[in-house]
């Protein structure tokens, strides 16, 4: 019995040990594959020209299909310019596979470590991605990639990634001066060489705005409230649940609830309990549309927490917001290194009113005040001017920068090959001269 007690490992410790061992195994696999590539390179004579000939000009990497809206306008612009590009995705059913591109090819990488093992050996001139934590966890910089560019997938603080999320990119495409200030502060504190931080705008929001303008005004309808939370313990459904839904039903307004996609797996029990209780669509509609455009267009007001949808709704659709006091813990994030409160939280009072434990029962009054108060329209204008810069040209600016970097890489590689060729020619000339001297 004593031996069993000595050998016993509690589930938490066991899980941690398993994670560590799995991580060590993953590193070993990546290292072994990298070693094989190096050996092949040396056996082939170490000809960098061959490596350059096989390079992907531009590679775009996404870890999930839900970011397709971020990349589609960028891909369309690359296609328009006839730029050969490879789109690498971890989703087998990524919408990209349905596009009929001529110059862009799409490839399913696999999921998890399988995808990262390929990325870590990628041979490309420029890599563009919205996935953070390059060179922090499994995703390592490949020695055969010349330049890494990070693209945002929301109009908010760049410091809201987990620590060191953007530290190892060569460039970060931004849309607001406050984001530039955040990166510069982090660079200074962490002694990071300054990166390129162009303000390019937000391509997917530009496309959404054009789509909204083309759709025309919404026909007269009953006042409609959309609740679209994030997931997790701080999310609206976890915190307020039935109490908030009951309060919304009592308003008599049309109520639509759109759970975060991650809720269907990470908090399945909680969500199924709520969905099984509220089945009458005359009171609550559960929205699962893949495309959120129409539900955002129909809603008169949004209730959300820290989900990026708050900026799509307020800035593109130009409608008010009710936000929750999420008590967001910034300690695991880059924002914790910066002295001032993140812009995302500073701007919220300009966009709407706060929902908390004390005023849930007054939700109808909050809704009416938000919709009818003209000051929130002024707040939305202020937010656009600070976080959506410039508007309307995001895809063009993004691809301009990508092509600029690609052309620089090509020119640098060509100069390097020319220098090596010249050095080789000079060496052969010297050897011939020396041989001639000996014969004489």
Specify Rg, calculated over alpha carbons: 26 Å
Number of strands: 12
Helix and strand element order: HHHEHEEHEEEHHEHHEHHEHEHEHEHHH
- Indicate the low-confidence ranges by residue numbers: 1-8, 10-16, 436-440
Helix content: 40-55%
CATH superfamily of the largest domain: CDP-glycerol glycerophosphotransferase, C-terminal domain
The residue-averaged pLDDT reads 87
Quickly count the helices.
17
CATH topology title of the largest domain:
Rossmann fold
Q: Can you characterise this structure?
A:
By secondary structure, the protein is of the alpha/beta class. The protein folds into 2 domains: 48-202 and 393-406, 3-Deoxy-D-manno-octulosonic-acid transferase, N-terminal domain (Rossmann fold), CATH 3.40.50; 207-387, Rossmann fold. Helix content is 48%, strand content 12%. It contains 17 helices and 12 strands. The strands form 2 sheets. It has a 6-stranded parallel sheet with strand order 3-2-1-4-5-6, with helices on one face. Strands 9-8-7-10-11-12 form a 6-stranded parallel sheet, with helices on both faces. Helix 7 packs antiparallel against helix 17 (394-439) and helix 14 (343-351) packs antiparallel against helix 16 (375-387). The longest helix has 46 residues, at 394-439. It is elongated and about 80 Å long. It starts with a helix and ends with a helix.
